[in-house]
Amino acid sequence: MNIYRNKINQDIIKTSFSIIDEMHLKMEERSWNCNIKTSYNLTDNILNIQELWNLKFEILNNIYQYMIQTGKFFDGFVKNSWVNVYEKGFYQEFHNHKDDIVKHICGVVYFTETSSAIEFGIDDRITHQPEVGDILIFKDDDLHRVLPQQGDNKRISLAFNYQLTAIWKGIK
Question: Bridge partners of 105?
Answer without folding.
Answer: 139, 162
